[in-house]
Amino acid sequence: GSSPEYNSLVVDKGEQTITLSLPEQQEQVVFSEATFNLTATASSGLAVTLVSGDDAVLSIEAKTVTMHKVGSAIVTASQSGSKYYWPADDVGLEIQIVLGPPEALPATDIEDTEFTAIWNGVYSATEYALDVSADDFVTFVPGYENKIVTELSVTVNGLESNKQYKYRNRASNGLETSASSNIVELISVPIPAAPEAGEATD
């Protein structure tokens, strides 16, 4: 008898596309010890494979990214297809890892000619650049424009009494510099009026 012809059936494979994005549609990620997950899906529902273009900057396990240093790397997503789907076109996403800005804290030890500026440290930063100004950073207190400090506080001196000052700073790891911190305002202490001289006594 004649053999059945069911083996001549042709399955037309479907097309598929990949969607790849950072969490919350952000464009950069602040460098830290934390990991984060990428959103990576194929319209077919098949599993997507992610590969980092620079494992020295970031590495990927499944969809979880671990950051290793400040820099940028391109993550490539691929899906090789199946019995029912053609392979998807690869999709690349450039991820920028940046130094976070410091958080400037309220000044302490405010006197007539000096105060102490303090701030929170930034992960992997080795130094901080401090600006102090009495006119919204148009000009700077002498010695305090981009002043490099390795601690998390510094005494600022050479001020005038009873005057408003502002300070901000940036973190650096020696290669990259962060955006500026928030701005802290303070007023130096007025000098008390000298008591009127009384009559000299013998």
SSE inventory with pairings:
Blueprint: E1 18-21, E2 28-30, E3 35-37, E4 39-42, E5 49-52, E6 58-61, E7 64-67, E8 71-78, E9 91-98, E10 103-108, E11 114-120, E12 127-133, E13 147-149, E14 153-157, E15 164-172, E16 184-187
Parallel strand pairs: 2-9
Antiparallel strand pairs: 1-4, 3-7, 5-8, 6-7, 8-9, 10-11, 11-14, 12-13, 12-15, 15-16
Written account of the structure:
- The protein has 202 residues and is mainly β.
- It has strands at residues 18-21, 28-30, 35-37, 39-42, 49-52, 58-61, 64-67, 71-78, 91-98, 103-108, 114-120, 127-133, 147-149, 153-157, 164-172, 184-187.
- A four-stranded mixed β-sheet has the order 2-9-8-5, with no helix packed on it. Strands 13-12-15-16 form a four-stranded antiparallel β-sheet, with no helix packed on it. Strands 3-7-6 form a three-stranded antiparallel β-sheet, with no helix packed on it.
- It is rod-shaped and about 135 Å long.
